[in-house]
Write a structure and sequence with these properties.
Structural class: alpha/beta
Distance between the termini: 42 Å
Largest sheet: 7 strands, mixed
Number of strands: 19
CATH topology of the largest domain: Alpha-D-Glucose-1,6-Bisphosphate, Chain A, domain 3
CATH architecture of the largest domain: 3-Layer(aba) Sandwich
Number of helices: 15
Number of domains: 3
CATH superfamily of the largest domain: Alpha-D-Glucose-1,6-Bisphosphate, subunit A, domain 3
Shape: globular
Strand order of the largest sheet: 1-2-6-5-3-4-7
Helix content: 25-40%
Oligomer: single chain
Length: 478
């Protein structure tokens, strides 16, 4: 059949190309490039390689260039060592297609979204793996409106990247793009963030700020200090390897301890790219995204500023939050997991507040994505305005006992194909009735199965969590 192959080397090359094409087709069919929050994985392993980043840059320039007259693109990153590699590769891809790249260095993800819109660019790239360990990295892409790309546009980019169909030889050498360093990018974001609370003074407040050795390590402390708060810093010494390493939003215990030791009023923990935030009160107790969203919803409603008197949350939010909101005549819209799902529902319904229990909070009047710093500013401004502690403000909610466990997996077979797990889920739901619930789903950014169990009876929550985790490990765990 393959008589045209003249020697073993040629045959090897043929099968290598065929295997690559086959693997790419499988990846495309299984949606292996874009997840729930951009492209993400282990650095220097497909798809987070220089080769793929180059293709993503070229393809994005082609696809979005058809929708925008601008030939400029913003590129930001967090503090991971692999960010240098990805930044260079994406830049090369963009330049080869005639786009100019504006490099803003390490800044929060919401800063890239803001700059993309305010500078009138065709797109914005943020090179980050958010809360993931330092060995991971990722690519988030924003459109000219500052919102994450639609599924349709991501699909077009994904198909072209996996098929490697884009070329740049139609760009004459004199039309190749240029790369520029934006010297005042951080300053622009600092002023924008402060403006969302009208530069209200935070004098008299003492805060512990944990920047996760990530993207906000420089701008975070400056913003709060410029508004008059006393800031105790932690997680502000990135070395390329220590982002999210025992610090940040995933590790509020250390934050709480430092809050108690320093006598601070509040602790603020950002994640690696600062698009989400978790708090600790003055006693060092964590305050999660559900409480944050509820406090903000109540505050906006009192001021007559909560659009349609509605809060948008995901299926992971605690039933206690939903009950508390309805007791205060606030409607709750529930979406699938993912801040992009929340944002899409907010835009559809013209709502201006939503978010996730994990700490992504979207203030639709100001931001196009979750912004941990803007959320923290609004919380501190609320404490000042109400002359109340975080503990007092958070007392509105009586949360159901909730257990959230992540089971590491090597593959992600459809959950409906796992009879043992399906049987346990059904039994759990039957046992809870209306007094609890369970949510089982795969992570969109990591090789993990996430199991949420929530019940008014704490002992029952523990019992069913143990059973579900046990069956999950037997059927698909590593």
């Amino acid at each position: 059949m393959f008589l045209c192959l003249r020697n073993q080397e040629a045959e090897h090359d043929f099968w290598a190309r065929a295997a690559t094409h086959f693997d790419n087709r499988i990846s495309l069919c299984m949606g292996k490039l874009f997840g729930t929050d951009g492209i993400r994985g282990t650095a220097n392993v497909h798809p987070i390689t220089a080769e793929t980043a180059l293709l993503v840059g070229k393809t994005t320039a082609y696809v979005l260039g058809q929708h925008s007259k601008s030939k400029r693109v913003i590129i930001g990153k967090d503090t991971r060592l692999s960010g240098y590699m990805l930044e260079t590769a994406v830049t090369a891809g963009l330049l080869s297609m005639g786009m100019d790249a504006f490099l803003v260095g390490p800044v929060p993800t919401p800063a890239v979204a803001h700059l993309t819109r305010s500078m009138g660019t065709a797109a914005g790239f943020m090179l980050t793996a958010s809360h993931n360990p330092a060995d991971d990295n990722g690519i988030k892409i924003f459109g000219p409106d500052g919102y994450k790309l639609s599924d349709e546009l991501e699909g077009r980019i994904e198909e072209m990247v996996l098929e490697a169909t884009i070329a740049s030889d139609h760009i004459p050498s004199d039309q190749i793009g240029k790369a520029y360093l934006v010297e005042d990018a951080r300053g622009r974001y600092i002023e924008y963030a402060k403006s969302t609370i009208d530069n209200q003074s935070l004098a008299g407040l003492k805060v512990v700020l944990d920047c996760a050795n990530g993207a906000a390590h420089f701008v975070g402390p400056l913003i709060f200090r410029e508004l008059g708060a006393e800031v105790v810093k932690m997680g502000t010494s990135p070395d390329g390897h220590n982002i999210n390493d025992g610090c940040g939003a995933l590790y509020p215990e250390k934050l709480g301890q430092l809050v108690r030791e320093t006598g601070a009023d509040v602790g603020i923990a950002l994640d690696g790219d600062a698009d989400r935030v978790i708090f600790c009160d003055a006693q060092g107790q964590p305050v999660d995204g559900d409480s944050i969203m509820g406090m903000c919803a109540l505050d906006l409603k009192r001021a007559g500023l909560l659009a349609e008197d509605t809060l948008v949350v995901t299926t992971m939010s605690n039933l206690g939050l939903i009950e508390a909101m309805r007791m205060n005549d606030i409607q709750v819209e529930v979406t699938d997991v993912g801040d992009r799902q929340v944002i899409e529902r907010m835009r559809q319904g013209h709502f201006n507040l939503g978010g996730e229990q994990s700490g992504h909070v979207i203030f639709g009047d100001y931001t196009t994505t979750g912004d941990g710093i803007v959320t923290a500013l609004h919380m501190l401004a609320m404490m000042q305005k109400r002359q109340a502690t975080l503990t007092e403000l958070a007392s509105f909610i009586h949360a159901y006992p909730q257990r959230l466990v992540a089971v590491r997996v090597q593959a992600k077979p459809p959950l409906v194909s796992l009879p043992g797990l399906q049987a346990e889920i059904t039994a759990c739901q039957d046992a809870f009735g209306s007094a609890g619930r369970t949510v089982v789903r795969y992570s969109g950014t990591e090789n993990k199965l996430r199991i949420l169990v929530e019940c008014k009876d704490e002992a029952m929550a523990d019992h069913w969590t143990e059973r579900l985790v046990g069956v999950a490990k037997e059927e698909i765990g590593t």
